[in-house]
């Protein structure tokens, strides 16, 4: 924290002050104790959410940090995708979406790269749920909705708006 945190903050502050870029920080494993530090230095999106790691309970992450951070990942590539049945994969994807996707601020994705040991039918099962959830979300929002991100907001940082000084098109229906 003493060596790395100040330098990351300086870099991320510079990026935020000179661009409209969002900072996506990749850090694997059990990082719950460091998530507040990542927010403090200016991280906007945490990747991946490795729910199989100790202390990375998605409900606790969403409760503690969901108003200040977008989560990217969450679908387990170590146990669920390689070894579960397609039906179990569907259940797990729906469970993670229900937790991390509640209120927005979630990009539905695997927790890391999909490896060669994952059965193709499990990949298809995951993407079928993604398609289903995306279609449901699309039917509930205006096709002209844009996402805006206000880092200065004391409450929610990801807001829906029809006009914005810093519009970003939603890359995923769950990202906003």
UniProtKB/TrEMBL annotation:
One Pfam family per UniProt: URO-D
SUPFAM superfamilies reported for this sequence: UROD/MetE-like (SSF51726)
GO biological process: porphyrin-containing compound biosynthetic process
Domain Uroporphyrinogen decarboxylase (URO-D): 2-132
InterPro entries, per database record: Methanogen_methyltrans, UROD/MetE-like_sf, Uroporphyrinogen_deCOase
Any one GO molecular function term: uroporphyrinogen decarboxylase activity
Annotated protein name in UniProt: Uroporphyrinogen decarboxylase (URO-D) domain-containing protein
Organism: marine sediment metagenome
Upper classification of the organism: unclassified sequences, metagenomes, ecological metagenomes
């Amino acid at each position: 924290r003493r060596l790395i945190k100040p330098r990351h903050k300086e870099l991320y502050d510079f990026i935020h002050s000179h661009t409209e870029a969002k900072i996506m920080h990749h850090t694997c494993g059990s990082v719950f104790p460091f998530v507040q530090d990542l927010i403090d230095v200016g991280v906007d999106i945490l990747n991946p959410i490795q729910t199989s790691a100790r202390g990375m309970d998605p409900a606790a992450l969403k409760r503690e940090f969901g108003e200040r951070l977008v989560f990217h990942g969450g679908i387990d590539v170590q146990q669920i995708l390689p070894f579960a049945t397609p039906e179990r994969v569907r259940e797990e994807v729906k469970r993670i979406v229900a937790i991390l996707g509640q209120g927005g601020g979630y990009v539905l994705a695997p927790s890391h790269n999909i490896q060669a040991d994952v059965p193709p039918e499990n990949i298809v099962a995951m993407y079928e749920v993604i398609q289903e959830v995306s279609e449901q979300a699309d039917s509930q929002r205006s096709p002209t909705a844009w996402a805006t991100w206000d880092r200065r907001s004391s409450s929610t940082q990801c807001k829906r708006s029809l006009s914005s000084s810093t519009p970003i098109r939603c890359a995923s229906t769950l990202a906003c």
